[in-house]
Amino acid sequence: MSRLVHIVTLNWQNWRETFVLLHALRELRYDPFQTVVVDNGSKDDSVPRLRETFPEISILEEKTNLGFGGGNNAAIRRALDAGADYVWLINNDANPAPDALAALVDVAERDPRAGAVGSVILNRDRPEQVDAWGGGTVVPWVGYARFSRGPGEPLQYITGTSMLLKAAALRDVGLFDERFFLYWEDTDLSFRLRQKGWNLAVAKSSRVWHTMSTTTGKDPYNRAYHIMRSHVLFLRKHAAAALPKALTALVLQSLGKLRHANLVALRAIWAGWLAGWKPAV
Question: How far is CA 98 from CA 22, 126, 184, in A?
Answer without folding.
Answer: 12, 19, 28
